[in-house]
Amino acid sequence: MARAVSTRRKILVTAAAWLAGLIVFFPILWMVITSFKTEGDASAMPPVFLFFHWTTENYAEILERSNYFLAAWNSVFLSIGSTLLGLVFAVPAAWAMAFAPGRKTKDLLLWMLSTKMMPAIGALMPIFLLFNYLGLLDNRWGVLIVMFLLNLPIVVWMLYTYFKEIPGEILEAARMDGASLWREIIYVLAPMAVPGIASTLLLNTILAWNEAFWTINLTTFDAAPLTQFIAGYSAREGLFWATLSAASTLAILPIVVLGWFSQKQLVRGLTFGAVK
């Protein structure tokens, strides 16, 4: 039987939740506000919050001096392309682990996840030299392959947890009706796992969009996404906080809009299997 919760406790919990949310959101809010300040107001002490001369000159300067739309296109290409490529490989792998597991399946899953714990700097030099030898530095396809391999363990793990919730008897019935392996995956498994596949796609698109370490080290201009776009302003402009804040706001705007409209799907994907 569910316990009754007092009104006072509900108010306290709600207030605590709002306070935690504001603390998490405040750096982003401050960045957006700073992007509309002059450089003098941005570096004023004590800081001014709302009562300053609002201006959009920082955005106009960035759009005039930088190719924002090329960087945005590169971010879209790398994040969506690496995620779709990951799904092509991860769906069959997750199917095999969920419905035809071997003795070492769980060890293999843990090993795949453990690769995400390795410091990226440890693999930078060999990958950089390999890219330099193959002529893949500042190449979209080269960076796409790195991001695909980077997020593949997460994609496989998420799909594995979704597929484990699907009754194996349904797939066995499809096999008895003569379905081949690919027809079983495409026409039986995939439709039942659409919510899980959608959550996996959204989460990994966001992870790929926010990836900065590899994009900063492997790209300069032609393949540079928005993470490199921000880093470029930080290196050139130093302590010009208003300009840097405007560049950062432009860089996060598309993914914030995507996250806002898909938040229910994302929460469902992140909490799937957490409560049985």
From TrEMBL:
Keywords: Cell membrane, Membrane, Transmembrane, Transmembrane helix, Transport. Gene3D superfamilies: MetI-like. Its main location: membrane. It comes from the Bacteria. Residues 72-262 form the ABC transmembrane type-1 domain. It holds the Pfam family BPD_transp_1. It is a multi-pass membrane protein. It is found in: Cell membrane. The keyword Transport applies. The chain crosses the membrane at residues 12-33, 76-96, 108-135, 141-163, 184-209, 239-261. Belongs to the binding-protein-dependent transport system permease family. This is Sorbitol/mannitol transport system permease protein. It comes from Labrys monachus.
